[in-house]
# Entry
Amino acid sequence: MKTKILVIEDEVKIARFLELELKHEGYEVELAHDGRSGYEKALAGDVDLIILDLMLPGLSGIEVCRRVRKESDVPIIMLTAKDDVSDKVMGLDSGADDYMTKSFAIEELLARIRVILKRRGRKDKNVILEAGPLVLYKEEYRVTFDNKEISLSKKEFELLKYLMENKGIVLTREKMLDQVWGYDYRGDTNVTDVYIKYLRTKIDQKYNVHFIHTVRGVGYLFKANEE
# Structure
């Protein structure tokens, strides 16, 4: 089945140009020329990516983005005629995944679409774990915060992965030992406290966040700051 891209753009010539280029690349394309119809089509459930103009009749691109983001995590690339930092910040804050200024090179837009869809596909395969700016790449044994690499040992990585996979669940020290160190581990359960301290030093304290919570008498709980 083809990847479907929704283009919400009120300038007919630009919308038609994008439609032709995207179809040439093998994408299925649907068009909307105002914010309200674009929003309705975005929530139809069969769209893989949205290209969204900032200035639209009916509903603005910012409002469309905000409303869509409340219902769906479909990737959104926002377009604007203004090369203004405040517009860019507003677009990203409203939930857009990327931002491009008109007039853009179609090759760059296509490249950004490929990157976002690839990232999306990897998430769908459950090889990426996220908690706000903290991202763990399972297959690459790699962790980033705001796209900055965090250096972790193998056990630190495995412990963080287990915590993130069980986000919102209180985990006992014994359970963490079983899952991270293995059932045949014969050491002190306090090793979990030591490695939790390592993770807090490298993530929570370094970036002034609070992901790893202590549940007294039980164990630990991982949750994102906004939860």
Remarks:
- The chain is about 45% helix and 20% strand.
- The chain has a mean pLDDT of 87.
- The CA atoms of residues 35 and 59 lie 4 Å apart.
